[in-house]
Design a protein that fits this description.
The complex is a heterodimer of chains A (114) and B (111). With 114 residues, chain A is mainly β. Chain A has no helices and eleven strands. Helix content of chain B is 0%, strand content 57%. Classes of the chains: A mainly beta (114), B mainly beta (111). At the A-B interface, strand 5 and strand 10 of A face strand 4, strand 5, strand 9 and strand 10 of B.
């Protein structure tokens, strides 16, 4: 009964390819997020959606396009993958946007660009 | 640019000792503060949240917040080897839902 689940867990692909990562939460939360954690372990917000609407877009290249078909799902599509995209991508969710709502993370997708 | 600073460590403590992890933040209007634990190769796991000045205790963990000095700390009493992990401090302001993370402190508890 995983709360926030991401697929795939590992993704190895060539530079220039297009790939997608899927995320689903069964917590009934309204808000979902995508984070990128680089090799130095810094965890940075990329996008946030609330009830399927984009509310945060943190200067991410437009090769990255999130899509939220419903409030339980937030997928991430990446076009023309570059070497610098290699990282761990975490999906997270929270009950709402309020300051005291903690975020719960998925297990991460380890993306390696060859 | 909102910043959250942590000493990257590693912080090494013997088993049974108190581990003290510190975090400073730059945005004065920050209202919510979280500590996450991340084992190597795993996802961040929420262990403590604190919203008011003072101490908040939960089992072996105590979070301390001082908004005037803009720092938040985490104390781990009776440290165990299983506490060895990276501890991430995260700060959120009340206006939005953006969580800003520090770079994490790696804690090593030696038997």
């Amino acid at each position: 009964d995983t709360a926030v689940s991401q697929t795939p867990k590992y993704l190895v692909t060539q530079m220039g390819n297009d790939k997608s990562i899927k995320c689903e939460q069964n917590l009934g939360h309204d808000t979902m997020y995508w984070y990128k954690q680089d090799s130095k372990k810094f965890l940075k917000i990329m996008f946030s959606y609330n009830n399927k609407e984009l509310i945060i877009n943190e200067t991410v290249p437009n090769r990255f396009s999130p899509k939220s078909p419903d409030k339980a799902h937030l997928n991430l599509h990446i076009n023309s993958l570059e070497l610098g995209d290699s990282a761990v991508y975490f999906c997270a969710s929270s009950r709402g946007q309020g300051g005291n709502q903690p975020q719960h993370f998925g297990d991460g997708t380890r993306l390696s660009i060859l | 640019q909102k910043e959250v600073e942590q000493n990257s460590g590693p912080l090494s403590v013997p088993e049974g000792a108190i581990a003290s992890l510190n975090c400073t933040y730059s945005d004065r209007v920050s209202q919510s503060f979280f500590w996450y634990r991340q084992y190597s190769g795993k996802s961040p796991e929420l262990i403590m949240s604190i919203y008011s000045n003072g101490d908040k205790e939960d089992g072996r963990f105590t979070a301390q917040l001082n908004k005037a000095s803009q720092y938040v700390s985490l104390l781990i009493r009776d440290s165990q080897p299983s506490d060895s992990a990276t501890y991430l401090c995260a700060v959120k302001d009340n206006a939005g839902n953006m969580l800003t993370f520090g770079g994490g402190t790696r804690l090593m508890v030696k038997p």
